[in-house]
UniProtKB/TrEMBL annotation:
NCBIfam families: GGDEF. Residues 632-886 form the EAL domain. InterPro entries: Biofilm_reg_signaling, EAL_dom, EAL_sf, GGDEF_dom, Nucleotide_cyclase, PAS-like_dom_sf, Rev_trsase/Diguanyl_cyclase. It comes from Massilia phyllostachyos. Residues 490-623 form the GGDEF domain. It comes from the Bacteria. Pfam families: EAL, GGDEF. This is EAL domain-containing protein. The lineage of its organism: Bacteria, Pseudomonadati, Pseudomonadota, Betaproteobacteria, Burkholderiales.
Amino acid sequence: MNKHPGLVFSRTNRYLVVVWPVLALLLSAALWIATVLRADAEHERAEGQARKDASAYAEAYEQYITRSVGQMDQITMQLKFSWEHGRDAGLIDELRRNGMFTDSAFRMVAVVDKSGIVRASTRLLLIGSDLASAPYFVQHRNHISTALRVGAAPPRFGEGGDLVLFTRRLDTSEDEFDGIVLMAVDARYFTSFISPATMGAGGMVALAGTENRLRVEQRSDGAAYLDKGAAVLPLRSDLWASERGVRKVDGEGGFADGQARVLGWRHSTVYPLVALVGISHGTALETADLYWQESRDRAIVATSGLLLLGAIGAVLARRSLRREREQEEVQRAYRTATESGNDGFYMAAAVRARDGGITDFRIVDCNERGAFFYGMTREQLVGSSLARIDAGLFGEELMATYRKAMEAGFYEDDRRMPLDNRLNISWGHRRLVRVGNGLAVTLQDISERKEHESQLERMANEDVLTGLATRHAFLNAMPERLAQAHAKNEGLALLFIDLDEFKVVNDTHGHAVGDQLLKSAAQRLLSLLRPQDSVARFGGDEFLVLLQPVDGERQVASVAARIVEAFGVPFLIGDDLHAVGSSIGISMFPRDGLDAETLVRHSDIAMYAGKNEGKGQYRFFDPALSNTLNTRARLKQHMLEAIERDQFTLYYQPRVDARSGELLSMEALIRWRHPELGIVSPGDFIPLAESTGLIVRIGELVIDKACAQLAAWRDAGVALVPVSINVSPKQFQRGGVQRQLSRALSRWRVPASLIEVEITESAMMGDQEDILAELAALRALGVKLHVDDFGTGYSSLSQLQRLKMDVLKVDRAFTSELGNSKEGKVFFQAIVSMAHALGMSVVAEGVETEEQLAILRKLDCNEVQGYYIARPVPSGEMLEMMRRRYLLAQGPLAEQGVSS
């Protein structure tokens, strides 16, 4: 038994007086080291998070840029296609009426011809401007590539804002340069992807070109700049030369405002563009700096307390109690900090077997947020073993991850959670750090971000209206499908499907009905195909179908016939049935092409060839189709050049009194003198002019030339006779003939009585009110109206009576029968009697023999025209006939002139 307990206590106190101050100093030093290390770790975490955010934003922004520029790509491609196939100066206005370019972001859309002159534009003041010296025009002219070019728009295109310019080369059918299409779009359209609140103070997004100096940026304060001095983005493109990356940029050669930023970038895989996101370095570290200040303050307080407690080493019990209270305060501060955050925190202790192997983990602590993720409370989760959680939700996956983290010391990933209604998180970012014999686990909810990324991916690859693949996604997937087919020696078939009469439904019933029809068409199309076949909406009312594999044309024809038959059944939209058919062009791999572009082009050619022969059918590609289209395209181009270079001229064929032979009138007939092709037959170019719409321009040219020639003959002092002009059905049905005639007559000071208009029966088929109105306008002008080629169309007696025509020209087919059969004479007599009863003069076309003339005189035919009188002749020879006046007195002139 100790006889000196006070001494022992005294020694103990003296011992504690020395030990406790030393222990206090050691604890203070350890506290400061831990505080500094944790602050450094927090700074490192914040820096790493800023890099991840910059990378994620850059990736999402690149997808947005690629999709947005892809839309511009499709629009310029559609504009290029429409212009190259029509070259209609009113194309842009028509597209605007159809709903294109209505977005306020489209500031200017224009078409520039090969000489640099603006031919069509949404800004009328630009029409006629010369852009031949513009760098983008020179670039396209000197390079055959038809790829989309992106750059900054010149100041002349600006309207109080910065613009990004999209241009694309136009080609002739010979792949020769034919001008460009250009589109100026508000630069903010490409920088408004991420809100300022998301980026934080000092944040910015920017779009840069990899092939030019295009710079578009917008900062978090809303300021936006396009390649101007006020922009802060460095001009050093070497900073983002790699395909993707993240780096901190500060100091000399950094951002112009001197602010350090974490710069993330990603190059577009499709376009020569790079998406850049800058997160303010200072803003990103604000939380870490605040944490350091708070930790420093707490460390100062703790150190002061420890030193004070060390000085009062004798009061051991009191010091012990104070330490307990301080620990409790630290725990409460930790609990408060973890509970106020959005992340889940867990402490998992390893449960080991006798051999040291880990058999399980036990949750020893967590916050309420972490327990909520697993559909539990903190009290329910703390104390639970990982094996029990695994068995209910994750199988063995969670245990394997925890063991891997214990082995490596660190593990981090993005994880899709199992589909279970007990979980309150679908995507989580996990961070596991080994601490002693356990793990500190952080779980961040990234479900919203992942959903946003998924939506962006769907928007880029899925057509919003029909749910089918987009043209861009379909063509991107084609090379892999073709490579697979080549490796397996399989055949493929590409079907280009166009809906017949869709435009009629869309125009008459509205775009809402048209959209519903496209949705129904897509669903019907999918129901006709195999699961392994691919379908895409190519644009408008066009679809692409890739059949893989196929055994040959017979199998493909069966599928195409099934589609044609199915689309022949009307669609029920609302309470109305809408009938639209389908025309299908088919190209086969590898026979008709080895790449996607060739296969699409050949199937498109086959589709249009089939549509021209009659809608509602399918057709396989034939190389001869391409040659035919090329020939037609070249002839069309030659016609355009002929109009521009005034290669068309008029010949004149006289019309005389059947009895006296007196020259009463003449018919103007167009001829084309090509410098290389020579005389091009009207039978070769008139049908093409009709189908392409160029007949309207040619018809207007004929009107002007005829009036000009009458003025020239008048100045020569000859007695004039009327000239009749043929008006095509398309020219007549579009209206405006009266306006064109009025303008030409006024310009050349020619009286309307010297012009006669010849209209075929087919031109008068249609809306009777519109036809009567147009004829009345021509009659009011003072010109005579002829029914041309009577007997070959659909005119009825009642129709002729309503239309009140002046002259009936009987087709040469009836004239040729005179003298050959009794019926031919009877038919002609009936026509003459009918015309005279209606107050119309009769002209017999195609009179070639004296016998025919004699019969016509007996039938009381008023006038005759044909080779027996004279062939069509140029204006100089016609002048001589006008001076002679009486042509039959000189005998037939069958050898004069050139063939009609």
